[in-house]
Amino acid sequence: MTANADELTRPESLPLDFSTMVKTARHVVDSGARVPEKDLETTTLLMRGYLGLLIPELEGRLGLLGEAARASAEAGIGEARRRLDAGPGPLGPGRHAYNLARSVIALCTHLGHGQERVDTERAEPWTPPRGTTVEMVPAGRFWDAVRVRSHIGERVIQRLGANSGAVIEDWKGAVFYWLVPPGTTDAWTLPASLVLPLSVATFVAVPPVSYTGKQERLRWIVPLTETCYLTDPELLYDALTAEISSAAGPEATS
Questions:
Q1: How many CB atoms sit inside 10 A of residue 212's CB?
Q2: Cα dihedral 176/109/140/128 (nearest 10)
Q3: How far is the C-alpha of 153 from the C-alpha of 175, rounded, in Å?
Q4: Which of 129, 41, 102 is CA-nearest to residue 237?
Q5: pTM
Q6: 175-180 sheet: strands from edge to edge
Q7: pLDDT value at position 10?
Q8: What pLDDT does 122 receive?
Q9: Nearest one of 104, 84, 113, 140 to 234, comparing CA atoms
Q10: Is 246 exposed, middle or buried (0-12, 13-18, 19+ CB in 10 A)?
Q11: How far apart, in Å, do the first and last CA atoms of the chain sit?
Q12: Where are the alpha helices (DSSP H) in 31-92?
């Protein structure tokens, strides 16, 4: 059956403007949960409207994704729905708008849009260790690090699949480290006993890029390469939230 002109011009049948969605949501995220009070209501309604379009769009494409990508996308959808249902709550309307915007970016990224900033805009050029010496590298300049307990981190690697950037494993400390653009974890609300963002005034022990073998105490469990470096913070946050909720219930991420 051929659609008539009225059907083709209904909002739900028009192509989504991912560029505008990502740009607008990035502006909210860059505000660091400090959207001006006069703009809060409009911003929140806009983010909710975007999610109302993005969620069914992504759900309709789940069958086209591979297993790992589908699991990651489903986690993003679940987190977006949770944020929509939760409302401002004790975190306040500014943080609520911020979290909604983060879900907008995550869903756009799952749909193949919005990830171009992750690798370049916020991070200074960095040369990783290439000899045989572990280096103490300051977080907050080239990247921020996200330290995750191993029992959660192992499942997050599987959930992210090809969406994960490089990951350091410290098997003695039983932790993993993801690298994300500086300043992108400032408003995270995950239990510090499981997930600890590291930024300015902290250091991370970074192994040489060749340290990938299981015999190394400190190694790249997901190797660092030119095409595998920083992880999209929105996708990482959603994957962490999903795994922590799965392990200990939704209240564990509040």
A1: 15
A2: 60
A3: 8
A4: 102
A5: 0.63
A6: 195-198, 144-149, 175-180, 167-170, 218-222
A7: 42
A8: 53
A9: 104
A10: middle
A11: 48
A12: 37-59, 67-86
